[in-house]
Amino acid sequence: MSGAAPPRVALKVDVDTHDGLRDGVAIIRDRLAAYGVPASFFVACGPDAMGRRLPHLLRPGFLLKLLRTRAPSVYGWRTLLSGTLLPARPIAAAFPDVLRALVRAGHEVAVHGHDHARWQDRLPALDAAAVAAEVMRARAVYRQALGVDPRGFGAPGWRCTAASLAAVDDAGFTYRSDTRGDAPYLPAITGRVFRAPELPTTLPTLDEIYGIVGRDPAVLAEHLARRLRPGALEVHTIHAELEGGPYVGVLEAFLARTVGRVRFVRLGDEADALDASALPVCEVRDGTVPGRPLPVARQRSRQRR
Ligand SMILES: [Zn+2]
Description:
Layout: E1 8-15, H1 18-35, E2 40-43, E3 47-48, H2 54-57, H3 60-69, H4 71-80, E4 89-90, H5 96-104, E5 108-111, H6 116-122, H7 128-146, E6 152-153, H8 162-170, E7 175-176, E8 186-189, E9 192-193, H9 206-209, H10 217-226, E10 233-239, H11 248-258, E11 263-265, H12 267-273, E12 281-287, E13 296-303
Parallel strand pairs: 1-2, 1-10, 1-11, 2-5, 6-7, 8-12
Antiparallel strand pairs: 3-4, 8-9, 12-13
Zinc ion binds at residues 14, 16, 112, 116, 156.
């Protein structure tokens, strides 16, 4: 590696559910502490209505993915019925002490939307006021829990629209991580450029590669490690419900493979170091990524400024 700058790796830990924040976050935090690695936790701030996603999980295209990722063993039946047969439980608001402990341990806590299921499945159908209300509610819950305004926003399901990009700008977020792409940029939709820089997820998620490139943690970790580009910012999204649950071995293998060879960073620090006036402007469009059945927002080709 002499001469070449090491990759910078931001672990973006998405926390989608009540149980994920209660149980999975502590498991991930322990592994990070063992290796002295900081991370950025993106926490859904509203109700855990994951049960409303069951019809989507059971659609034909999802069956393979469900079998590959063993959804019931990942989420548990309480979560899979949450918001339908059983009441939706709060996520961030239920565990402010967990969020504060993350900050004390040197991690970043950011916002992963309010009602994750609603955003992921219905965002394009929501009007601008409804989208703004989702963002403002999430911000208020975060502020209540941590006493400061959030700086980072990560769109549930990597879904975004012009209304959501505008809402995140209007709510005062410093940066966002809403899309899949290869390097930081200023997002644009049909020529309208938004203020807060976007730091996209650059690496595949566990559920996109599990059972495809392999199932063995060392094989999965090697697959990820080989994609790391010298000098680049790599954003790796992991999930409290997966890597903080049955697949903690994959996180362990990834850390064992990369610690000492890469520099682990927090997304907020990377955002602070950006010169927004020098960032490329890139269109955001719905697209696909291998192994993920639903469309996601993707960074498209660069535009001249
Ligand atoms: Zn999520």
